[in-house]
Amino acid sequence: MYISQQIAANAVADVLAGSNLTLALPDALKSFSTATSQQRGAAADLGYGTLRFYGEVNAYLTQLLEKPLSNDHITALLLVAIYQLLHDKADDFTVVNQAVKAASYAKARWAKGLVNGVLRNFLRQKNQLVEAVKNDEVALYSYPLWWINKLKSQYPSTWQGLLEIGNQHPPMTLRVNIKKSSAQEYCQLLARQDIEATPLGAQTVMLAKPMPVEQLPGFLDGVVSVQDYGAQLAAHFLDLQPDMRVLDACSAPGGKTGHILELVDVDLTALDNDANRLSRVESNLKRLNLNANLQLGDASTWRADKPFDRILADVPCTASGIVRRHVDIKWLRRETDIVTFSQQQLLILQQLWQLLAKGGKLLYVTCSIFNEENQQQIDSFLQKNGDATQLPLLLTKDIDKNVQIVNGQLIPTSLHDGFFYALLQKN
Which of these three, 226, 252, 268, is where a domain ends? Predict the structure, then answer.
């Protein structure tokens, strides 16, 4: 366990210093090349869990320390161990013992005794510590205070539920390629392999337990792709017809790109401003045996020779609606980032609007639950563009019974993440 604790502590320390967890965790694993697959998996769970509940565990650690430690790694190790004592199934003695062992490998002679003392004090004083932070909303909900206050303002009757759902483990949801199978047929295939799953509509399957993609039947052959149920709505909302010219702006990693081509045979251009991410789109399309015109470019400045009938604008955002998948976002984002993203979104929206044919439709998408990036952004755009009309979003019956979407805002639930959709037509 101590190796997993060390790896997780390295990753947590890097994130708290400003790094992204998707980069910090692989970097931390590189330092422990001999770690087993079980240790690596446990390290990932500890890293994600500690950051998911960082507000809580940090509040307790602050109470236990007379002053902040100068060693970021030991601080992170204590955070990981306190998370385990609060939320992990391992017994208290093992957690403390292994954390002390992990500390003994640190380049600080004082660390071993300090870790032992702090963790044992936590166990002895747990009831008093809980009482001391009971009115601390950051500790209670494990979100920054500005985030909590924003949801209170924008979702006065449901803000607590939104915070709670964001701290849950996300579901693993699959999109079945309807050219090759259906949700019902694929669930039957999974059942024959003792994999528990539930169909959600005609082409969506939710697994009871996450599993490596390479173990999914038919994954390498393009039968299924991993995609959140809420994200699967985008291709349906676009109102696609055969042979249309379609632009998927900000397309990486290609989930929505592939879904569009699975549904309808269109002339699709996939645009992204990052060459490495665009290669992921190419890889996904190759696995699905689908083709698109891949273009490297910035959606806020990119131009085309001919207008498009449909444009999918899945714009950069705070990702506040998918925070349970990216737990570091809560602690890396700042409230001022919302303004920066909003400005970038408007630039992209204005440029893409110039590429849309008359009578064409543009679907604006974010994975955010903050209104500044969503309907407020659309209202501002409509005021400045008299040739734009916002259309209602049409849901099929099997989708409608599983989602809660209010004025374009898809509220995150146990079935799906949070997204915003706005369908605009050029008059």
Answer: 226
What is Dmax (Cα atoms) for the chain? 71
Determine contact, residues 352/302, Cβ cutoff 8 Å. Answer: no
pLDDT band at 74 (very low <50, low <70, confident <90, very high): very high
**Structural tokens at position 103:** 């500390």
* 331 in Cβ contact with 54 (< 8 Å): yes
pLDDT, one tens digit per residue, over 373-393 is 999 999 999 999 999 999 999
* Domain count across the chain: 3
What are the b/e assignments for 221-256, b being 16+ CB within 10 Å? ebbbbebbbbbbbbbbbbebeeebbbbbbbbbebbb
Distance CA 140, CA 53 (A): 9
Three-state DSSP state, 28:
helix
Confidence (pLDDT) at 300: 96
197 and 294 both lie in a single domain? no
Q: How far is CA 394 from CA 202, 234, 360, 397, in A?
A: 16, 11, 16, 10
Q: Does the pLDDT at position 104 exceed 90?
A: no
Lowest mean pLDDT among 26-30, 99-103, 402-406: 402-406
- Looking at the fold, whether 115 and 176 belong to one and the same domain comes out as no
96 touches 119 (CB < 8 A): yes
Q: Are strands 419-426 and 356-366 parallel, antiparallel or unpaired?
A: antiparallel
Provide the 8-state DSSP code for 321.
G
Distance CA 418, CA 427 (A): 29
CB 275 within 8 A of CB 296: yes
Which of 187, 250, 317, 367 is labelled catalytic? 367
Q: Does the pLDDT value for residue 225 go beyond 90?
A: yes
Q: For this structure, is 187 an active site residue? A: no
CA–CA separation, 23 and 394 (whole Å): 38
Q: Find out whether the peptide bond into 307 is cis, omega within 30 degrees of 0.
A: no
Q: Radius of gyration (Cα) for the chain, nearest Å?
A: 23
**Cut 0.90: pTM above it:** yes
Q: Which domain holds residue 211?
A: 172-226
SS (H, E, C) 40-53: HHHHHHHHHHHHHC
- For the domain that residue 248 is a member of, what is the CATH number? 3.40.50.150
Give domain status of residue 161, yes or no: no
Note whether 114 and 220 are same-domain residues. Answer: no
